[in-house]
Design a protein that fits this description.
There is one protein chain. This protein is an alpha/beta fold. The chain is 32% helix and 10% strand. The protein starts with a strand and ends with a helix.
Length: 224
């Protein structure tokens, strides 16, 4: 499950359900790859996606587009990115889709030191799709085992209950972290700058409607 981290700015609290284990928290960036001013800072952030000046319906009649801002449109793009990857690799599990998105995310910092603004970086599904030799890793190993409070070698095959408490490793990082980088696309080696950031929109738009449902099905397939 993907969820917006919140729109209360760097001093706000992360929103439910992004604070729960096995939920992927998404922050918002602008076209330069810099975290949006409204995007909440939190160590529950796993990915960043475009969330500023995103086309959206102006009213309930669905007759006109307007610019929308928020971590919600960013989450739609991130979820659609996962659905897009799964559509090309239907034999992968949720763990494998997530692992490849982490490995290919745009960032200028170490992968094992996620930013509290941008998480593991800007989600880039195209990088997964064009790499014919990409290694998705073990099917039943959680790539976010540390954040989710599990062991690296634990066989993760069951969908956790949403009533579970937040993972124990999260709060301490929020309390003491400086936050890490607030911009990734312009600095990350091989990210392609603005054009690479906005390729997310083109790649994910085709599956935007099925994005949320697509990844939900992906999780169900993992349990089959």
């Amino acid at each position: 499950m993907f969820a917006g981290i919140g729109n209360d700015g760097p001093k706000g609290k992360a929103s439910y359900p992004a604070t729960y284990p096995y939920v992927i928290g998404v922050s918002a960036i602008d076209k330069s790859g810099t975290v949006a001013k409204f995007s909440t800072k939190s160590n529950y952030v796993d990915f960043a996606a475009p969330g500023v000046h995103i086309p959206g319906w102006c009213d309930g009649k669905f007759t006109q587009y307007c610019d929308t801002d928020g971590t919600s449109p960013a989450t739609a793009l991130a979820s659609a990115s996962a659905a897009l990857v799964w559509s090309v690799h239907p034999d992968w599990t949720a763990n494998q889709v997530l692992r490849t998105l982490i490995d290919t995310a745009g960032r200028s910092w170490a992968k094992d030191e996620p930013s509290t603004y941008l998480g593991y970086g800007i989600i880039r599904p195209r990088r997964v799709l064009i790499d014919k030799n990409i290694d998705p890793g073990p099917a039943n190993r959680d790539p976010l085992y540390a954040e989710n409070g599990t062991d690296a070698d634990e066989d993760v095959t069951a969908t956790p209950s949403l009533s579970a408490a937040p993972a124990p490793g999260h709060p301490s990082k929020d309390a003491g972290s400086s936050g890490g980088p607030t911009s990734a696309a312009a600095k990350s080696s091989g990210s392609g700058g603005n054009s690479q950031t906005w390729v997310i929109i083109g790649a994910a738009a085709a599956v935007l409607i099925i994005g949320g449902a697509g990844f939900a099905v992906l999780r169900a397939r993992r349990n089959a």
